[in-house]
Specification:
Elements lengths: L3 E3 L3 E8 L14 E8 L1 H9 L4 E3 L7 H13 L2 E2 L11 E6 L5 E6 L8 H4 L9 E5 L9 H9 L6 E5 L10 H6 L5 E2 L3 H8 L4 H4 L2
Parallel strand pairs: 1-4, 1-8, 2-6, 4-5, 8-9, 9-10
Antiparallel strand pairs: 2-3, 6-7
Keywords: Kinase, Transferase
Protein name: Ribokinase
Pfam families: PfkB
């Protein structure tokens, strides 16, 4: 059976709801606050709930946030390929949602920001697998080159799924140019597709 091999990052979100952001140096009370597994976790949970086996290839930390991330993946039935990283915890994203529904993020990268050739070798992709790649991964110094080399060495019958994220603003980056011919499925939204291609319509962006 096909699997989803997720090479992105699972982090922990501190989600807070408030009326509006305070001015610099100010203070405000939030209506709610909670910790949730986030980042790549959401894609993996959706895949599992639709019956697809999932393997998380990324790293995760040795601490309270790593524990939370692993517990969430365990509940969803996600297989975790790596052991917990020593000396680092999983990263944190503070997600602030205003009454207008506008969201503001402040992120700190943890153990998930690193990934080596040896880490990736722990899982052997099969011909019917889907390999999911996040554009954020290609911005992480401790992960990008090893991941790119691994992706470009995959057999062509393995499907590579790409979510560009911030790389929609960097279509001419060396890493993006190297990866682009290997992408089979592109998962951006409409505005991202237009930003990346410079096209004026979605029909043109799809060409």
């Amino acid at each position: 059976m096909s699997r989803l091999l997720h090479t992105g990052q699972v982090i922990v979100d501190l989600v807070m709801a408030l009326d509006t952001l305070p001015a610099t140096g100010g203070d405000v009370l939030a209506q709610s606050a909670r910790f949730e597994a986030g980042g790549g976790f959401n894609v993996m949970a959706a895949a599992r709930r639709n019956g697809l086996p999932v393997v998380y290839l990324g790293r995760h930390g040795n601490g309270r946030f790593g524990d939370l991330a692993r517990a969430a993946m365990r509940v969803e039935g996600v297989e975790v390929a790596q052991a917990a990283s020593d000396g680092k915890d999983t990263g944190l994203c503070v997600s602030l949602t205003e009454a207008t529904t506008e969201r503001t993020f402040i992120s700190h990268i943890g153990a998930e920001g690193d990934l080596s050739t040896e880490d990736l070798a722990r899982v052997v992709p099969r011909a019917d697998d889907y390999v999911y790649v996040s554009g954020y991964s290609l911005l992480l110094e401790g992960k990008a080159q090893a991941l790119l080399d691994w992706l470009l060495a995959l057999p062509r019958e393995i499907t590579v799924v790409f979510d560009p994220g911030p790389l929609v603003k960097s279509p001419d980056s060396a890493l993006m140019i190297a990866l682009l011919p290997r992408i089979d499925i592109w998962t951006s939204n409409g505005p991202e597709a237009l930003a990346f291609t410079g096209a004026s319509t979605l029909a043109d962006a799809l060409l």
